[in-house]
From TrEMBL:
Residues 30-64, 79-112 are annotated as: Disordered. Keywords: Carboxypeptidase, Disulfide bond, Glycoprotein, Hydrolase, Metal-binding, Metalloprotease, Protease, Secreted, Signal, Zinc. It comes from Ursus maritimus (Polar bear). Its cofactor is Zn(2+). Its main location: secreted. This is Probable carboxypeptidase X1. One of its GO terms (molecular function) is zinc ion binding. Residues 1-20 form the signal peptide. Belongs to the peptidase M14 family. PROSITE patterns: CARBOXYPEPT_ZN_1, CARBOXYPEPT_ZN_2, FA58C_3, PEPTIDASE_M14. The gene is CPXM1.
Length: 732
């Protein structure tokens, strides 16, 4: 046995294997015991190692340590000196290493080559093959970078491609369908809450016909290159090829993997298209847009510069302002777009888009930067649709709610940021769980029969604990709450990434501790309408041939879902917005890829452009009006607008104007305000584009008139004084 191990160690490349896995401590599990598969020796953890002087024959003399894991005891046995090939040292992108350990950039390497499209689903399942699969749920179609597993181990949606255990020579193959210059590979292990599986080293082969294959070789030794892979399930590892290869097919051949585990991986291929002079292959579809916009990722400084440029180009319809600062002091910039920027116009609804709540979900940020460029450009060109939108609506675009998290993700890069890095703010707070839980006090009051007579069904106050100085509330969250309270928003969408679906409130399950449960709001019909409008005009969501991103096929339900029926999210911005303000807000999951490569931004813009515009126009759906004082003809602030049959009211803004989103139908609407008699009228919402005017004139009560007289210093007539005294006596 020892002889076999030593023989294998003499010829196997060094492979580093991690001793832990993210989430192990969180799940209460101990890290898995780890040994090198196939007798390979541990890789050095430091930077490239220089060979001893005089050793230039491709071998080096070194001690070999064989590590034996018995339960939790690790035994190191030192053997005699052997002569073996020098270990391949892990490449730190974008630099690869030669077998001698000296860093060098590969000739003609193109680290800037974009991803082929495994993660973004541009590659279909039919383009992925493998030597074997443990099950359908672990088939090659699941070998996509950052794909997430379902909660059930072994279901149809597992978190990687995994070869059968008896497969002695496993391989994972990608068919680019066109001549392609392959330049690099990114790998991850298996995403699972139950298992630890990852490949620790692999070889790469290429073919033009899937029959004849050649390998990627080290230039100095001429031997097949063995690439170091992963040491945990989630961290993406990039390896650039020593020399880019032009081919149609690429194969990854796992050489070693975590002992006790399986040969499992998720991958993305970096590749540049090449011209086909003979036109033997159909041309690859181009990712392009006809709009001349700035299609690239913008860090904080670039974002601020672009917003300034848009403001300078369209000064009459734009205003840039800040609503606060992040934990690290970066400003939360908002672009306001309206024909009268800087002021609330009576009767003009306020709409907002918020992106970047999770810093690593970068697509929403870029879409809002593209949207502001587009609106400015089209307004200057006189586009009637955009002109009407900016004339009748006041639009607010917050491209980065979590700039600290985005900067972290941006530094890692679109393909190496992984699934979670940059998600939280600098304090480690998930901003979408950080808003006050107003659901629980409302539902408790409803169970006690206190709503709406004692406890209102709208504009619930912040809980006392949430306002304490030591409350765990992120500065970004506080800034957005104050922004909500300052501006009478009517409609909003919160742009996320990592899925293709629109979710609507409630996001929190009504049954305590339920992981998921259908929990609709009283305005379920409106939220379903809004969600369907976005999903129905989003190109990617409407693609009948698209496959599910991860573990749920939302296309079966029109690409919309009740948030709580998906997974419970206490303290979400959607629920808070609905219960604390007048604003109706949904979450739009824009793409399977949280941080798409720059070359995919034009297509993502085309996928979402019509949806972004059409959703903004839904603010005209329903009724709108002004609640006036009948005597003074002044607007009444904070008047309550109640719709019969819907247990959720809205209030008027400081000028007395209001907007109530409703689906088509006939409604009985009541306006009330303190010190006034209530008024009720019938309002019909047609299917044609609205909104429908529904104004009210309220008359002061005698008691209110008396208060105003006394406040003005008027004397009370003697007969009225005696009458009031008698009334007080009867009351006592």
């Amino acid at each position: 046995m020892w002889g076999l191990l030593l023989a294998l160690a003499a010829f196997a490349p060094a492979v580093g294997v991690g001793l832990g896995a993210p989430g192990a401590s969180m799940l209460g599990l101990a890290p898995p015991a780890t040994t090198e598969a196939r007798g390979s020796t541990p890789a050095p953890q430091s930077s490239p190692v220089q060979p001893p002087a005089g050793k230039d024959n491709g071998t080096s003399e070194r001690h070999v340590r064989i590590r034996i894991v018995k339960k939790k005891k690790v035994i190191m046995k030192k053997r005699r000196k052997l002569t073996s090939p020098r270990p391949l040292v892990t490449a730190k992108p974008p630099v690869t290493t030669t077998p001698a350990g000296a860093p060098e950039l590969p000739e003609a390497a193109e680290p800037g080559c974009p991803p082929l499209g495994l993660e973004s689903l541009r590659l279909s399942d039919s383009q992925l093959e493998a030597s074997s699969s443990q099950s359908f749920g672990l088939g090659p179609h699941r070998g996509r970078l950052n794909i997430q597993s379902g909660l059930e181990d072994g279901d149809l949606y597992d978190g990687a491609w995994c070869a059968e255990e008896q497969d002695a020579e496993p391989w994972f193959q990608v068919d680019a369908r066109h001549p392609t210059r392959f330049s690099g590979i990114i790998t991850q292990g298996r995403n699972s809450v139950w298992r630890y599986d990852w490949v620790t080293s692999y070889k790469v082969q290429f073919s033009n016909d899937s029959q004849t294959w050649w390998g990627s070789r080290n230039r100095s030794s001429g031997m097949d290159a063995v690439f170091p892979a992963n040491s945990d399930p989630e961290t993406p590892v990039l390896n650039l090829l020593p020399e880019p290869q032009v081919a149609r097919f690429i194969r990854l051949l796992p050489q070693t993997w975590l002992q006790g585990g399986a040969s499992c991986l998720r991958a993305e291929i970096l590749a540049c298209p090449v011209s086909d002079p003979n036109d033997l292959f159909p041309k690859a579809p181009a990712l392009a847009s006809s709009d001349p916009l700035d299609f690239r990722h913008h860090d904080y400084k670039a974002m601020r510069k672009l917003m300034k440029q848009v403001n300078e180009k369209c000064p009459n319809i734009t205003r840039v302002y800040s609503i606060g600062k992040s934990h690290q002091g970066l400003k939360l910039y908002v672009m306001e777009m309206s024909d009268q920027p800087g002021e609330h116009e009576l009767g003009e609804p306020e709409v907002r888009y918020v992106a970047g709540m999770h810093g690593n979900e970068a697509l929403g940020r870029e879409l809002l930067l593209l949207l502001m460029q587009f609106l400015c450009r089209e307004y200057l060109r006189g586009d009637p649709r955009v002109t009407r939108l900016l004339t009748e609506t006041r639009i607010h675009l917050l491209p980065s709610m979590n700039p600290d998290g985005y900067e972290t993700a941006f530094r890692r890069g679109s393909e190496l940021v992984g699934w979670a890095e940059g998600r939280w703010n600098h304090q480690g707070i998930d901003l979408n769980h950080n808003f006050a839980d107003l659901n629980t006090p409302l539902w408790e009051a409803e169970d006690d029969g206190l709503v709406p007579d004692t406890v209102p069904n709208h504009h619930l106050p912040l809980p006392t604990y949430y306002t304490l100085p030591n409350a765990t509330v992120a500065p970004e969250t506080r800034a957005v709450i104050e922004w909500m309270q300052r501006i009478p928003f009517v409609l909003s969408a919160n742009l996320h990434g990592g899925e293709l679906v629109v979710s609507y409130p409630f996001d929190m399950t009504r049954t305590p501790w339920a992981a998921r449960e259908l929990t609709p709001t009283p305005d379920d019909a409106v939220f379903r309408w809004l969600s369907t409008v976005y999903a129905g005009t989003n190109r990617a969501m409407q693609d009948p041939d698209r496959r599910p991103c991860h573990s749920q096929d939302f296309s079966l339900h029109g690409n919309i879902i009740n948030g709580a029926d998906w997974h419970t999210v206490p303290g979400s911005m959607n629920d808070f917005s609905y219960l604390h303000t007048n604003c109706f807000e949904v979450t739009v999951e824009l793409s399977c890829d949280k941080f798409p490569h720059e070359n995919e931004l034009p297509q993502e813009w085309e996928n979402n452009k019509e949806a972004l515009l059409t959703y903004l126009e839904q603010v005209r759906m329903g009724i709108t009006g002004v609640v006036w004082d009948k005597d003074t003809e002044l607007g009444i602030a904070d008047a309550v607008i109640a719709v019969e049959g819907i247990n959720h009211d809205v209030t008027t803004a400081w000028g007395g104007d209001y907007w109530r989103l409703l689906t088509p139908g006939d409604y009985k609407v009541t306006a009330s305000a303190e010190g006034y008699h209530t008024a009720t009228r019938n309002c019909r919402v047609p299917f044609e584009e609205g909104p429908v005017p529904c104004n009210f004139h309220l008359t002061k009560t005698p008691k209110q008139r008396l208060r105003e007289l006394l406040a003005a210093g008027a004397k009370v007539p003697p007969d009225l004084r005696r009458r009031l005294e008698r009334l007080r006596g009867q009351k006592n």
